[in-house]
Amino acid sequence: MFECASSGDLLAGTTLCLVCRAARTWVLPNLYTRVTLTSSSEIARFAYAIMEDPSISFALLPTPTSCIRALWLGHTSSTTPNDLKYDSSAWPITLIHQILARCTALRTLAIAQLGQRRWYRLSGVVPASVTALFLGPVHGALDVRHLPCALSLCLREFTSLDTFMVDTEICALVRAPGVRVVRRVYTSEAHVGLAFEQLACVDARAAALEKMEIVCYGETREDATLALEEMAGTHEYDRDRVVLVPRAQILGNDGLVDGVRTLYREWLAYKDI
């Protein structure tokens, strides 16, 4: 009853957490399983709240951060006014460190528009428990040798949006022992060729890889299908493991393609949390 009452109602859930320890244990996961922090102020408020969480002093379990399974950092649409624009200096990196350090059961992590020059400051603190990582657009270099979640063999899926990655990055990623799915998402047919040019990396040395998805967004699904078919006809690759996924573009409030919202939809669709 408590779980039903708190599902989808944050105010009710917060109130029910105060009833007793048992109620708190039942309700807290409903409040914190999936957390979206879309601005520097939201990130800061959340970080300070968990650092000052009185439940830690009284050894109340679970703690809010121990319930987080999916975490999104960054705004959810490129057309929404926000201070966390691409490569913005407003990103509170140190506070994000504090959040990630406390998310001991995190499984799905998404970081949108962090910028190439700042990703290296977070890559080393991605929780070892993360099984799915979402980055983009144009994220920094990804070296699985320095990702705690890859070293722990927990990382199973990686999704990259609108990013050029060098061959060494792709080869290391698809050959990583724990990685099963690599998903490269492009919001324009004009750039999807970047993924096709690196499909030679999906070879016998990528023994654990089950699937490489190339997701192409076109003005319509039919346009995306045509673009993928044209590319497929001019490239040789492992057709058993490479999967082509056509989709219709997601538009923002200004009528233009909204890449950030595209990544957010991909993250929301991921259910293994």
Shape: globular
The largest pleated sheet is described as: 8 strands, parallel
Could you give the order of strands across the largest sheet?
1-2-3-4-5-6-7-8
Name the structural class.
alpha/beta
Mean pLDDT: 88
Low confidence ranges:
1-6
Alpha plus pi helix count: 13
Order of helices and strands: HHHEHHHEHEHEHEHEHEHEH
> What's the N-to-C terminus distance?
23 Å
Q: Features of this protein?
A:
16% strand; alpha/beta; 13 helices; 37% helix; single chain; globular; eight-stranded parallel sheet; 8 strands; 273 residues
Describe the fold and architecture.
By secondary structure, this protein is an alpha/beta fold. The chain is 37% helix and 16% strand. An 8-stranded parallel β-sheet has the order 1-2-3-4-5-6-7-8, with helices on both faces. α2 runs antiparallel to α3 and α4 crosses α7. It starts with a helix and ends with a helix.
Outline the secondary-structure elements:
Layout: H1 2-6, H2 10-16, H3 21-32, E1 34-37, H4 40-51, H5 54-57, H6 64-67, E2 70-73, H7 93-102, E3 108-112, H8 116-123, E4 132-136, H9 148-151, E5 157-161, H10 167-175, E6 181-186, H11 193-196, E7 211-218, H12 221-232, E8 242-248, H13 259-269
Parallel strand pairs: 1-2, 2-3, 3-4, 4-5, 5-6, 6-7, 7-8
